[in-house]
Write a sequence for this structure.
């Protein structure tokens, strides 16, 4: 199993960024996928989850209305569209795989993360 | 939302000694219909992503050494490392997956 995030970088407050997570080594279309972030020196914060078929999506309150999780099962890729970025969104963003099918499950594989910095 | 609170925030233990980390949820994560606790533990070493250690509160993930064990039910849980090794220095997080999967704040484990 391999999860490789990309798309991070430096962006000004109020601007947008799209993260991608390329998955391989498992049947991507049968697992829920997650985004988790970690601000520098801080703990883990779950950001969003998408069901295996994309029909269900849930978000932490702090990103609702600004972030959108999506997936393309034909490309084995997970996305996170981040709009109206704020300084407090600065973090390493990890994608993670659900351990089994279901809305809420533990995460058995994680990517190495991509850093998002929001600064003017 | 179910809030997870870990204690202590940091811990120093001698090599070969037992390390114990506690985790408390703001409401029960025991699902009565299957009698399972929706609680996981992760280990995060510096510069690395987290690694799943335990799920269902006490089931070790494949490949995790048996010195790691989890216990507890309902709202109170414990991660125990029976004999601390140098490679166990890390931050440990509990997580509930009964609902939207919030993490505890983390416990930093160091060598005394």
């Amino acid at each position: 199993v391999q999860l490789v995030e990309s798309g991070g970088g430096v962006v000004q407050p109020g601007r947008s960024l799209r993260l991608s997570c390329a998955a391989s080594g498992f049947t991507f279309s049968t697992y829920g996928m997650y985004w988790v972030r970690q601000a520098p020196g801080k703990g883990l914060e779950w950001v969003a989850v998408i069901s295996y078929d994309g029909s269900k999506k849930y978000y932490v309150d702090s990103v609702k209305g600004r972030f959108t999780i999506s997936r393309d099962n034909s490309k084995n890729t997970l996305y996170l569209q981040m709009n109206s970025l704020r300084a407090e969104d600065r973090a390493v963003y990890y994608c993670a795989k659900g351990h089994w099918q279901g809305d809420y499950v533990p995460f058995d594989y994680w990517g190495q993360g991509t850093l998002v910095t929001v600064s003017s | 939302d179910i809030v997870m609170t870990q204690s202590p925030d940091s811990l120093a233990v001698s090599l070969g000694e037992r390390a114990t980390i506690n985790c408390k949820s703001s409401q029960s994560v025991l699902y009565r219909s299957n009698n399972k606790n929706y609680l996981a533990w992760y280990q995060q070493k510096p510069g690395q992503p987290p690694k799943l250690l335990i799920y269902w509160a006490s089931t070790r993930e494949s490949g995790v050494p048996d010195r790691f064990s989890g216990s507890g039910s309902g709202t109170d849980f414990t991660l125990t490392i029976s004999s601390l090794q140098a490679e166990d220095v890390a931050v440990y997080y509990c997580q509930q997956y009964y609902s939207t999967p919030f993490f505890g704040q983390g416990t930093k484990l160091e060598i005394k």
In short: The CA atoms of residues 35 and 95 of chain A lie 5 Å apart. Chain A has a mean pLDDT of 96. Chain A touches chain B through 20 residues (CB under 8 Å). DSSP finds no helices and eleven strands in chain A.
